[in-house]
Amino acid sequence: MEMKFENNSEIVIKDTASFHTLREQGLKDKKCTFQGINFIQEEVDWKELELANCCFFGCQLTKEDQLYLLRQGAHILSTPDNLPYRPFRNELYAFTELMAGYSPEADNSYDLKIYNHFSKNRFNPPMAEALWQRIHDHSIDEALRELLQFDENGMTQRKCVGFMGGHSTKRTDPFFRKMAHTAKLTAEAGYLVVSGGGPGIMEASNLGAYFAGRSAKDLDDAIDLLCEASSYKDKSYHEKALQVIEKYPNGAESLAIPTWFYGHEPSNLFSTKIAKYFSNSIREDTLLAVCLYGIVYAPGSAGTTQEVFQEATQNHYGTFNYYSPMVFLGIERYEVQTLIYPLLRQLAWGREYFDMLHLTDEPAEVVKFIEKHPPKKKDS
Asked: Nearest CA to 326 among 300, 355, 349?
């Protein structure tokens, strides 16, 4: 049952069960927002409810009901029929929804259809299309907030730990296996593993979380199977992932936050909750913002480096009201090849997050450090 009470006494109703419950209690003079509900099949006497100044977003209503509600001062915003996506969503995606229509012979997936639609005007969308995309992303924001449950200080009830690294890392790369085992241990320690939802290290992270509660041997077996199509550009990339899911069904929970801006890269199939955005800038900021219990970095290229310093900036200024641990998995990469870790230590000297930086090559040490360094609240 989806029913949300805001501080300003607005009632947000997102399914018919909640609607019927509140209708029995009486909705007269209530400020209500209805989203994504099909009222055409419902027998509703709107005159009896005496609603005024309510909002109907993405709901299905008969023309007669629309006219009556508009005369009562209601605000109605319906979704165009020609969109391949639903702007007013009430839930996050699952990989089965995004992959609907896919086959090894032809990718006619729902995910690809949305990407193709988006790509036509990705740099200069018409005003209406841009608006629908923003509404969609707002709906994803709302669904994500409901999943993570933020309190008044910005802390989440779900303890999110982010995993970042190269999108082009092959399944045969040692760091793919190492990151998968790190994510498995992290999930088993009670954290919600969060990735960018794409291939490479992102897939390794969701894969590891998927195998939480199973043996390390099972995870290694799954990785061996995936290695038969080592790159996301390989034709059987998805088929190998589906074989793993078929062999090891009902995996543990994890979260992915991808974007159609990089829709040419396939989404990985191992996350159970997918917050997919059109706007990459909102997606990147959100991905870092929700991971208040820490971020783990495997080797990556320019994108990963950007994320390192974006998170460092948030820590430097306490942007989201907390300082969070940053753990680097890969001594050779981060201390010798790039000098990123020494530079970050220098920038953090004298700051609250200086002691929240750590460099290691051991998955178990990553989890141990995160457990010993919970987020610190910023002094007001």
From this structure: 355
Token duo for residue 235: 């034709």
Distances (CA, A) of 286 to 31, 264, 333: 29, 21, 26
Return d(Cα 151, Cα 228) in angstroms, integer.
Answer: 44
**Quick one: pLDDT at residue 25?**
78
Instruction: Report the C-alpha gap between 52 and 31 in whole angstroms.
Output: 8
Start-to-end Cα distance in the chain: 37
Spell out the residues 6+ positions from residue 302 whose beta carbon is closer than 8 angstroms to its own. none
- Count Cα atoms within 13 angstroms, Cβ side, for 10: 11
Asked whether residue 310 carries a pLDDT value surpassing 80, the answer given is: yes
Q: Indicate the average pLDDT of the chain.
A: 94
Scan for tokens 């199509």, then name that residue.
229
**Nearest to residue 274, comparing CAs of 192, 175, 195?**
195
Give which of 172, 185, 188 is closest to 240, Cα–Cα.
Answer: 172
CA distance 116 to 266: 13
The per-residue pLDDT for range 162-203, each reduced to its tens digit, is: 999 999 999 999 999 999 999 999 999 999 999 999 999 999
Chain CA centroid to CA 2, Å:
19
Can you give the pTM of this predicted structure? 0.93
37 exposed, middle or buried (CB, 10 Å; 0-12, 13-18, 19+)?
Answer: buried
- Rounded Cα distance between 315 and 348, Å, is 9
Q: How far apart are CA 264 and CA 146, in angstroms?
A: 29
How far from 327 is each of 144, 225, 312, 345, 352, CA to CA, in Å? Answer: 24, 29, 12, 12, 15
Q: What is the dihedral of CA 235, 220, 367, 167, to 10 degrees?
A: -10
Q: Which CA distances in Å does 65 have to 11, 17, 34, 50, 78? A: 20, 20, 14, 13, 13
What's the chain's length in residues?
A: 380
As a whole number, mean pLDDT of residues 66-84 equals 92
Nearest-10 Cα torsion for 325, 331, 334, 337: 180
The three-class DSSP label of residue 338 is coil
